Amino acid sequence: MIENTNHTCLIVDDDNMILSVVKQCLETIGYTCATAISAEDALKILDEASFSLMITDLQMGGMNGIELTRLTKKVYPSMSIIAMTGYIDDHHYDEAIEAGASDFLKKPFTINEISARVERVARDAHFLELLKKKEKSMEEISTMMIAGLQEEAKQKFAALEAEIVQLKEAILSCKVY
């Protein structure tokens, strides 16, 4: 079983060459990868292992990548997903994003392109996780204030607000379009 770290990826495609190329690329940037030749195989793997990222083809025999993305996001809402396809139109892009994909790749793609997209998606997921932790801290501080620990809560609240401002500035400075 692959450990749930920030550097694990499940790659899903019905083309073995694509699986091999994407896996090699991601392994060079520090990812531990598993591969699946179909959406059905991917679901079996997801039952046994945790991943921070899934990269899936949209056009596959059997269940397609859109449906795989929908099912995966229902069970693993924090998993980042990158959809890829050789057949692109606005409909595919819109449908993939609506299903829960974090990004979209058109085949053929360069190694630099997939590396940059994976790194951006991982960075965005990291910032989102940090923001969620800060929001949880703010809720705890609010509870402290209600419980009468106002002075300590005010100090923690001010420090947390400053951290959130810094985090938002970091997010904005990293955005790549």
Number of domains: 2
Give the averaged pLDDT, no decimals: 86
Shape, please?
A: elongated
Named CATH topology of the largest domain: Rossmann fold
The CATH class label of the largest domain is Alpha Beta
What string, H for helix and E for strand, traces the elements in order?
EHEHEHEHEHH
Strand order of the largest sheet: 2-1-3-4-5
- Helix content bin: 55-70%
Radius of gyration: 19 Å
Distance from first to last alpha carbon: 35 Å
Uncertain runs: 1-5
Give the amount of beta strand, in percent.
5-15%
Plain-language structure description:
It contains six helices and five strands. It has helices spanning 16-28, 39-48, 65-75, 90-99, 111-146, 150-174, and strands spanning 8-12, 32-36, 53-57, 80-85, 103-106. The chain has a five-stranded parallel beta sheet with strand order 2-1-3-4-5, with helices on both faces. Strand 4, helix 4 and strand 5 (103-106) form a beta-alpha-beta unit.
Key terms for this structure?
alpha/beta, Rossmann fold, single chain, 5-stranded parallel sheet, 2 domains, 177 residues, 5 strands
